[in-house]
Specification:
Elements: H1 9-19, E1 35-53, H2 61-72, E2 82-101, E3 111-116, H3 132-135, H4 137-143, E4 147-151, H5 169-184, E5 197-203, H6 205-216, E6 223-227, H7 238-245, E7 248-249, H8 250-258, E8 269-270, H9 274-279
Parallel strand pairs: 3-4, 3-5, 5-6
Antiparallel strand pairs: 1-2, 2-4, 7-8
Helix pairs in contact: 2-7, 5-6
């Protein structure tokens, strides 16, 4: 019998989505003109309950497609793809940007928003150079007087590279918890020092990570903002999502469309095109 992934929120469903981490490099971070921005490389030591991937690593898109077919076809045996979880401790370096208003006397400057991006992006999602007056979150937040901390999730952008077969939700939650703890203590906040309050904001998968921190370590934050996210995740048909994405190996797709070789392993995947992402 072929393996079937048990699509349950608290176990393998989110884990497998996290293992299949999509990747698009968005380019250099844009600095809002009315902000003082600082780049940080932040060491974190985290412990997380991690699952082990027991499946065969796919070598090409054909093998990846077969893997998806094996786990979404109903009526098959209990999954043997993942085992665990078991606690694992590791050290990583997280690449981040902190922006605060040039006028440090603004009302909200000591309120820090920690922003976590979703699948398919790096931290530049929050500070895009294209039409920043319309689409740049960091610039808008700074112009309202807030400080913003945004970072490349583990395995993405300039943060520590990890295998796509081991990167998963529990580790991302532990990383964000560590970052929020540091920010709340006044680290990596420049002239702001110790904030008056810390709020987490996430988009899509970043919202799932944010929600996880609120559930497991509410003491390190004062508020959360969830975007691209619904609390009733039990309504999501995960097999359908995987099929609709028509996922492909990310590095192969990037080489095809841009000529770049980012040298990510095959555990990093992406949707087949723009429309597959939008339609899901």
């Amino acid at each position: 019998m072929k393996p079937q992934l048990p699509f349950k929120l608290c176990t393998s469903s989110i884990t497998i989505v996290a293992l299949l981490s999509s990747l698009i490099q968005c380019g250099p971070v844009y600095y809002p003109p009315r902000a003082i921005c600082t780049e940080y490389s932040i060491p974190v030591n985290v412990t997380a309950a991690a699952y082990k991937f027991n499946g065969t690593e796919w070598a090409d898109n054909n093998e990846l497609t077969q893997f998806v077919i094996d786990i979404v076809v109903p009526g098959q045996s209990e999954s043997t793809i993942l085992s665990g979880p078991q606690n694992a401790t590791a050290e990583y370096t997280i690449s981040a940007t902190f922006c605060t208003p040039r006028n440090s006397n603004t009302t909200h400057a000591k309120t820090v928003l920690i922003a976590s991006h979703g699948f398919g992006f790096d931290r530049s999602y929050w500070s895009l150079a294209n039409e920043p007056d319309e689409y740049n979150f960091a610039q808008f937040a700074v112009d309202q007087g807030y400080s913003v901390f945004f970072y490349d999730r583990l395995g993405i952008g300039n943060s520590t590279r990890v295998s796509g077969y081991t990167s998963q939700l529990s580790t991302q939650i532990s990383v964000l918890t560590e970052l929020a703890t540091c920010i709340k203590a006044g680290q990596y906040t420049g002239s702001v020092g110790i904030p008056d309050s810390v709020a987490l904001i996430g988009h899509s998968f970043g919202s799932i990570i944010t929600h996880g921190v609120a559930a497991y370590a509410p003491e390190v934050i004062d508020a959360i903002i969830l975007t691209g996210y619904g609390l009733n995740l039990s309504a999501i048909n995960y097999p359908l999502v995987l099929e609709a994405w028509n996922i492909r190996i990310a590095d192969t797709e990037i080489q095809t469309f841009t000529g770049q070789n980012l040298d990510y392993d095959t555990g990093y995947v992406s949707w087949v095109d723009l429309y597959a992402n939008i339609n899901v």
